[in-house]
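Shipment paperwork, digital attachment
Item: protein structure file
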Amino acid sequence: MCGIFGVAGHREAANLTYLGLHALQHRGQQASGMVLWDEGHIREVVKRGLVVDVFDDKALQYLNGSPSGAAGGLTIGHVRYPKREKHALQNAQPLCVSYARGPLGVAMDGAFVNYEEVRCQLEEKGAVFQSETDAEVVMHLVAHAKAPAVEASLIEALGHLRGGYAMVLLAEGKLIATRDIYGIRPLVLGKRDGIWVVSSETTGLDLIEADFVREIEPGEICVLQGGHLESHFPFAKAKRACCAFEHIYFARLDSEVFGCSVHEARKRMGAALSRVHPVSADVVIPVPDSGVAAAIGYAQAARIPYEQGLIRSHYVGRTFIEPQQSIRNFGVKLKLSAVRSVLNAKRVVVVDDSIIRGTTSKKIVSLLRSAGVGEIHMRIASPPTEWPCCYGIDTPSRAELISASHSLEEVCTHIGADTLAFLSPTGFKEAMQPANGFCDACVSGRYPTQLP
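Attachment content:
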């Protein structure tokens, strides 16, 4: 879960990429970066922090001060959500190197399941790594490739790797965008002023007033220069397996991901949950923000009033890091506060997107109890998460996933709710419309790729 954005040669490339990354901020908050290619030179700004903090006036002036002036350059940008690697600046993206054929920049969302194996092979050949990111493996493989052009080198490199990814590269005056053969991670194409734009989600296109054209297809490699697009499909087709958690949690409500409206899909999840797991209650409330649309769907289907019983502070990030134990204990209260007038002495249905470890749900229930709630009925708009993700989402090991080792009743007791129910796998697939073509490995344990 990272966000990537790219512009293939617009006069306002840096400014548009800044805006696009701002629209994708929900996909990663630990670091932000942008690389601009102009006349064979690369300018880069990569720092820890939010987009608005990293790209201040000085940074944007530096990126906009390209020698070609009005002609503009090519840009790629990244907002980072860490996976296996540490929270360190050297792991921030885009990554940039200079190799035999010139500068190369790479930004990636996803993960390779054979990362460790391929990295060890490269290190045995003398490769020196500066980061712990999957993207750096790609850079080494591209540099070692024998092919004459960067797109052919990328095809050779990806032939050694397995996993789920969306990726953008800058090299040889080209912007190259690609997805894994299963389509696990999202990536879309748009156009503004006749110039190609790529984004993890359509919301990135919307903010810069670019027209959505289509998804980049699974296994497709797009070579973009201005308004020109060259498309390659070098790999054998595979069964489509788009990440289910994009619609459950990650993607923004106003996006269309994998050809499906996130808002409408979550509403359908909530409605399906209401039909299968009804309960007598006075009010339905969401856990904001990812539970909002599902709670609306639940309330409408159940004919129970919908209220905002929990208010989220937008000054606390999606992945809040508490520096000390004394502060860590207040983590949920820093992020969420209860509206007592809505909740006091009420029978409340609380709709959330998922339960991972159970820690957050337990704290939310405790917060609601302290606000005087009479009954708490937790309803989760996804099936139980019982298996870890191998494709770029930082889910914990199976031993840490509470639903993998505890019964429904045990999880309910642990979080302190009066009742607990999850959306069934069948209900989830029906809500997606279309029902097939999704990776639900975190629910089913059926992974689309071979695992080491």
